[in-house]
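tl;dr need the bound structure. longer version: we got a ligand (S-adenosylmethionine) that a collaborator sent over and nobodys looked at where it sits. i said id run it. heres the input, straight from their email, havent touched it
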Amino acid sequence: MRFDVITLFPDIFPPFLEQGVNRRAFESGIMQVKLWNLRDYAQGQYKRVDDRPYGGGAGMVMLAEPLFQCLTAIRSERGETRDLCPLIFFTPTGRPLTHEFVQNWGSQRGAILLCGRYEGVDQRFIDLHVDLMISMGDFVLSGGEIPAMAFLDAIARLQPGVLNSDESHQFDSFHENLDGLLDCPHYTRPDIWQGQAVPQELMSGHHENIQSWRKQQSVLLTRQNRPELFGKAVSQAKSQTKN
Ligand SMILES: C[S@@+](CC[C@H](N)C(=O)[O-])C[C@H]1O[C@@H](n2cnc3c(N)ncnc32)[C@H](O)[C@@H]1O
């Protein structure tokens, strides 16, 4: 699976790609990443990649032409049609990234990832060339590099052989094994730390009691922190009981 990243700050990526789980995914060749410095596709003496917005207002807008030149170079190197290799633009105006999306990504599809900067990208480039717009949440970052890294990380850890145990992600928050609930709290040694004991249920060695405690904690946590997810999980459970 190959990802091509268009960015004005390619140096941000290597430290991230060279650590932990991501390193395993990229060093093993399961995933490949190629960084493209947008500045290399800018024209003129000053290699401009942005300009003032039509209509006035604060901030700058990324120019369509260098983006197009860079995209053309990537597509010609990849030699794939657009449907096999979508262009994803990270933007707060996109659809929120979900576990479902990451899981459905599978192990075949690569993509071109566009990291925005400034106020954003000339809309004409988006209209003509962007296939998917993805948001990391209801907040604004200064650039799309962190969203691109988050996206790559989420895809990498689901690839077979990347995590130490392929089972470990199957009990993470949002996984279907958890029936729409968040993960439960986790504890490790020592038994008592700063006066706080590990819950007795986890020390019991009784598999069913442990499972039932974990489920109960997941329910409590989801209800408290994500009432909308909790509501959805309850309706799903009800409709499954009816069927
Ligand atoms: C300062 S932001 C631009 C925000 C834009 N004017 C808006 O209000 O929607 C610069 C770039 O950071 C990235 N970015 C910022 N927040 C993001 C988020 N929540 N999800 C995905 N990308 C984000 C995008 O690539 C965006 O083009």
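gonna send this back to them w/ a short note. Residues 90-93, 115-117, 119-120, 135-137, 139-144, 147 surround S-adenosylmethionine (CB under 6 Å).
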